[in-house]
Amino acid sequence: LRFVRKLGFSGYSEFTTVVKFTLINHNEETSNPFTIPQSSYRNEYTKNIEETIRVLKDDQLKRIADKLAEHPDVFLFSKDTTKHLTEYIKYLYSMSGFNVIFPQDKDYRRLAEQQINDNSLVFIMSFNGENTEFIQLINKLIRQGISPMVVSITGADNNTIQNLSDINFYLFTDEITVNKTDIGSRISVVAIMELILYQYIESYGGR
Fold this sequence. Notes:
Mean pLDDT: 87
Strand content: 5-15%
Order of helices and strands: HHHHEHEHEHEHEEEH
Largest sheet: 5 strands, parallel
Low-confidence stretches: 29-35
Helix content: 40-55%
Shape: globular
Structural class: alpha/beta
């Protein structure tokens, strides 16, 4: 238990889950995903979503809900494939009454960084958890003594962004590349963000 915690995991169950999915993703051939039967895709697609939801921790959801109850400025940082679904997440949180900042290119992200303060809630979505720009963003905030709540959603492995975050959620998905483009599902990102919002509504919606 001390060993797996030293690696950054909360416990042995989380460690074994990550090892299992890491091995699956490394062993499966993804260069031509359409050779896999459609039923297999449906099964794995469902398993990934279920596993993402299964490992969510209630205390982490409640911590973020408590933060949302303070009505902080909500910052969303994402790139590449994930950026396209973040627009929906922005809509969802904006319609729920939050001030949401979602800068979609590097120049806007640089300006947005300057608006983050101790009361902010920052979501960082990075599949591999090693995005240099986002790592620099967190380190810059640390150097400046600014302490927002940083919540990251990353792939299921021990990564730099996870270790720099206050709360991390694992995203389980298969790596699928078509025409040199990553089209692996990010639907689990939406599931996590929706469940965070639903936890807030459950805890504070009637107040």
